[in-house]
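Consider the tokenized backbone below.
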């Protein structure tokens, strides 16, 4: 997928996340933000998969280890949603692992438990070859 298209998708996701945060504010569960963000993205005409299973491939065997991508938008951008006091390195590692396991190139880590949402958004790139 062209970089511009992915940039447009991430821009739409961030805009929708800001809209959700302005309406709800901080303090809710991740599942509430996930459902509302999914709704906003669908309203924008984007394809969204919620709680997409993410198997681990070990020795050519696909194993369901219970991993789930919170939101996969336009089969291109992985969105991991948090509602925590502050993002920790483990949250970044989780998203980077999801990118590596899935082969997707771009991920957004969004923490809704902030006063200003832009302080809780981080974009990551997977430097591995595309799927």
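A designed sequence for it:
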């Amino acid at each position: 997928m062209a970089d511009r298209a992915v940039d447009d998708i991430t821009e739409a996701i961030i805009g929708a996340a800001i809209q959700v945060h302005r309406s709800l504010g901080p303090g809710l569960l991740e599942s509430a933000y996930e459902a509302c963000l999914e709704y906003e993205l669908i309203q924008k005409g984007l394809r969204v998969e919620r709680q997409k299973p993410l198997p681990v491939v070990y020795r050519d065997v696909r194993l369901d280890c219970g991993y789930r991508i919170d939101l996969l938008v336009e089969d291109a951008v992985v969105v991991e949603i948090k509602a925590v006091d502050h993002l920790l390195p483990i949250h970044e590692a989780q998203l980077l692992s999801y990118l590596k396991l899935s082969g997707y190139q771009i991920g957004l880590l969004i923490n809704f438990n902030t006063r200003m949402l832009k302080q809780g958004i981080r974009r990551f790139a997977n430097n591995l070859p595309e799927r």
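The two ends are 11 Å apart (CA to CA).
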